[in-house]
Structures
1.
Amino acid sequence: MADDKALTPRSEDFSAWYNEVVLRAELADYSPVRGSMVIRPWGYAIWENMQRALDDMFKATGHENAYFPLLIPMSFIEREKEHVEGFKPELAVVTHAGGKELEEHLVIRPTSETVIYSMYAKWVQSYRDLPVLMNQWANVMRWELRTRLFLRTSEFLWQEGHTAHATEAEAEEETLLILDIYRRFMEEWIAMPPVTGLKSESERFAGAVRTYGLEAMMQDRKALQAGTSHMLGQNFSRQFGLTFQSEEGQEEYAWNTSWGVSTRLIGGLVMSHGDDRGIVVPPKLAPAQVVMLPIFRSDDDREAVFGACNRVAGALSEAGVRVRLDDRTHLSPGARFWEWERKGVPFRVEIGPKDLEKGQVVVARRVHGEGEDRKMFLPESEAIGRMPGLLDELQAHLLETARTRRERDSVRGGVESVEALGEALDDGAGFVYTGWSGDPAVEERVKEVTKATLRVIPSEEFRSGSAPERCLGGEPSKMEVVWARAY
Amino acid sequence: MADDKALTPRSEDFSAWYNEVVLRAELADYSPVRGSMVIRPWGYAIWENMQRALDDMFKATGHENAYFPLLIPMSFIEREKEHVEGFKPELAVVTHAGGKELEEHLVIRPTSETVIYSMYAKWVQSYRDLPVLMNQWANVMRWELRTRLFLRTSEFLWQEGHTAHATEAEAEEETLLILDIYRRFMEEWIAMPPVTGLKSESERFAGAVRTYGLEAMMQDRKALQAGTSHMLGQNFSRQFGLTFQSEEGQEEYAWNTSWGVSTRLIGGLVMSHGDDRGIVVPPKLAPAQVVMLPIFRSDDDREAVFGACNRVAGALSEAGVRVRLDDRTHLSPGARFWEWERKGVPFRVEIGPKDLEKGQVVVARRVHGEGEDRKMFLPESEAIGRMPGLLDELQAHLLETARTRRERDSVRGGVESVEALGEALDDGAGFVYTGWSGDPAVEERVKEVTKATLRVIPSEEFRSGSAPERCLGGEPSKMEVVWARAY
């Protein structure tokens, strides 16, 4: 696993860099089944940390976890018209089981609205049974021909929340609550600050009334749709008979929302913070925040060095730091150094015989700001005492860096035609804010000419100070929108 | 959801009781797809607590989580001869995806040995890369025609561990380590003490060299196979080219183990502890260990009662107790009482205006031992202070009760023919310990005559004091074995 070969630099070929770094950080690997991936322990541990954090946020806002079936009858998928149009081309179909052809073919869930609302219809009778606030952590399948690890695979892991409410207003409130949870999670945990907003009609979820999205800017300035929250209206409740008796005694259809984020977030993490040495994992998500590296040549040194490493590891662990001791003495210090650089562990603490003599330990930063030293030589107790603060500082630094980069690479104002948009993007713009008339024909033309798409109609906090007057198509503008080339 | 209709008593029809109690405790529900189930929030929260506890035990012994693909090429399943014979009749097959027929059909994993060892073959080069100790939490599919919620469904949730080792001895050690982790988990968390041991050849996992199993006795005296740990030898490593260079520089095949427990454990929990009022959840696994029930008639009382409930709930929570406040004032106290009885919450704390006057709270036990009062009237501070101890006592009581029941319903010695075994079982024996010659023909005949199967060749600690001399077939006995009718 020791692998000192340099990565393709990001500046040379970002896409090649991404594929290499995902493999060499041992986040994931290609599987024997085309389009599926294997998530390796380092990648899965990051996912577990994401899950834990999000799950806590969902539960703190009254959501419960449940589990619904993997297989969905084809007739269910077909019931909501837009839904089936959107998903049919991507379905994987089980035609045979138990040695026989099935009477009705079953699809592997591409998303679970249909089966979940059919169950809610069974459980909900009265307004007193509402709201229903459930989430499931599950695998889903959307057949893809052109796949990329984490970003686009046929099978992926995600959470999907599904709620039912008595009123439209409550459903809208839920949709926005989740949008806010996602935004906070991406900022506070992944240090990946998204721009949030409404999706245009052409980009919304198949079956939704409104889709809100979170768009993060990667280092190559492309947008990554990092999560979505859908207001489904009564589209599914009508198809699945999800009704309730209102407080006034009337039979009414419930209002639904659904929302999800997936293992794609790991791809976002990689493309937000990685550098030419490897990935960088934000401290709050790092499976190991500190790696202890004992360094010695002779067996005489070994005991003293290991003793010090164990002592420091124990003290860090007691201070709430996730620490791992790398005791693979068959690997050279250099090989181990490179492995943890690739894997993006925030800090290494190295201890060798000379350090013991000097009464110090070496604290090496995975990321150092300008003017910061890569290595710090600190007395043991100081290294231990400062570590929680160093981790917090790094977490904040990564967020600040990503936010600064996002705004640096955003163009607000001055782009007033499709051609000008293309030029701005070719000149290195990431997110371009312009006016829009609301006409889908403009979206079509932008796509053809520039390969960019309308990412969001930004939420108020992300809008530019002065509203643009003109749409790219020349008409008067009705709203400000964000364009970008996207993953 | 208020549902005061009594359950079918266990003594009358255990099977009907089981189906009713699973539905009415809202653990699970039938889904629109035949053979699949929906795990509802109360059931899923129990599963999450099981997962957390087991996952901690796996990680404490050096295992890491990963995730492997849902779909497996048919040719992979077919590679290990016994494996395909065992699983082929139960496969669900994806023949079409992305709108086309697939060149090679894919099966939904019934278990993941094949795809996982094909990946290990890619990752392992040298003895230094061993052992590989991975686990995944996943859904699997084994097509079933006769299904029962949690006990036998086409799709179920489980964990599957897969390890690779340099030597046979290490693999055997791992198999037994996991067997021990499972036993401890079932005893300490589910309060469901299993008998452990080796499976006979006819009952072992398709592709294994040796299968160890854990058999728990349900209240109807039937055995539930609650978990298995397999020593796979080199069967899979040979088929998938999982080799490594040994310390001596030779190319060798790795030794594998695999092991799993599933949501079936929830069925075991239900059938171990449930009574005619509902399920009983052991405190360590209970999503809520205490439910607070405010009781009042007038709005005047409301504030004082809620104030006291919130105060007690806060204090219990600080003491590390999982507590839930049931504030559904539209339901009568009786309806809420029955709901929590059904759902098996260990303790209720009820507070009404009269209790406030008397300076007391009512602590009601879900389960009370002989001579114990169902309700205790305690000063608030005493109720809070004693609660952690009460939960521990209940946990211990459930284990002790289950162990006593298991041994009471086990017959050791004196059964020396197939006919006598049938009579013992008909007379109410659960586990019957007898001698066995090792001849599979005896197993066949036992099954035909008595419907019982050989559950395990018990581990030393479960063997009877004196070894039986005769096999049920009349031959000299080679080992002691346990027979039971099983789920």
2.
Amino acid sequence: MSQAITPSQLRAQIRSGQHQGHTSGWCNGYVQCNVAILPKAWADEFLQFCQLNPKPCPVVAMAANPGDTHIPEIGPDFDIRSDVPKYRIWRNGELVEEVSDISDVWQDDLVTFLLGCSFSFEEALLADGLEVRNISEDVNVPMYNTNISCKPAGRFHGNTVVSMRPFKPADAIRMIQICSRFPSVHGAPIHFGDPAAIGIADIHRTDYGDAVSIKEGEVPVFTACGVTPQAAIAAAKPEFCITHSPGCMVVSDIPNSKLAIF
Amino acid sequence: MSQAITPSQLRAQIRSGQHQGHTSGWCNGYVQCNVAILPKAWADEFLQFCQLNPKPCPVVAMAANPGDTHIPEIGPDFDIRSDVPKYRIWRNGELVEEVSDISDVWQDDLVTFLLGCSFSFEEALLADGLEVRNISEDVNVPMYNTNISCKPAGRFHGNTVVSMRPFKPADAIRMIQICSRFPSVHGAPIHFGDPAAIGIADIHRTDYGDAVSIKEGEVPVFTACGVTPQAAIAAAKPEFCITHSPGCMVVSDIPNSKLAIF
């Protein structure tokens, strides 16, 4: 069962090119992170944007200094240039390339941000016996643009993007309790029920990801989503930046339970 | 400002007959309790009923032995025979009398149960800046019979009674977080949204208490209620029992914060 390997072993496989593609379902129990790599000239404003909008943009770890390629909290061997299965390279807001190693485009002024992702709380929901619809239907979680403004910071601004998971109300209450324990992976949801109340015109038409079925008696529950900072970066159009490709995350040595505040 | 007196001072005023009527709004910051006093022949089953249904029937304190009139956790001076502003005396399930002192009907086999009440969590909600509609509209909280069965214990059985407070979804999420901290005063709500899903035919017709307005964009949030054990006692029809009159509670020395589990 290859998924039972350690984060360090998986990172070694990614680094060598042996593991390509998604990290979803790998190294259960360990925190996976969204990636944003920005030039120092943009990094301070981005950090402020994250600080002002912690629910969509929870910073799990960041490089201590511009140019640092190692972030010890993630793992003693971790190297941001090689340990993500697939990267997206952006120039002036345009996606120009997808690559499996960024050593040749690395710059000494690049600052790495690693942001919490929903895998951690989804694992906690499953462990509690709740059904996570996007997992049971084996699709990407449905995501939507909303009319909920982020607090702007310098050149970064935009509305909150949310993911949606349907639950019966009693399960939604339990989901709120569980997710409240994990503020650094988006925390408690920010809305449930009427999609129009947060600017979603049609729950069956997603802006990102795939639609999932909503069954009789269920309500949609909306959680701030890590696509929010990506959308803010895309709108700000920095001359250069690097993100992970969707689903191809940094796999850390941090146990999910370390993120639980109680 | 007479409401700033200590619980011990208020109990002395109640004991002497100087304070009559409701305890709501008095001694903010301290736990108030629902009262159920049952003969020993019924008390063991009632305790089991509470143990099986902790959300509607949270036992904050109980007499150590049948006949005990003092419960030190409530206060060193506390006497169950005189320290409730108004009692209801029941015989064979019928309300026969309301009195302000039960010394003359006290029996050596009576077991006193003190159950958590919503005042504690309502205070926490107000302290967080949330509006509690029954308080802002100055009425009793609306309460409803549901189709949610309690787990039966001996002669005690029945459905859960719920209280209802309307909130916008984002405030409902915050309310769920706050109430989750207080399991001994009913804890997290058990339902929100569609009243029919839990057997409530008309949200504007309460079974106990008063209706409150539900504004555009708000959803009703339903919390297990201390009327549940009272309804179970009324249905079981013990030959003798004593409860508090609605709103006339035991005021304890226990700070509300002591009930918070985190």
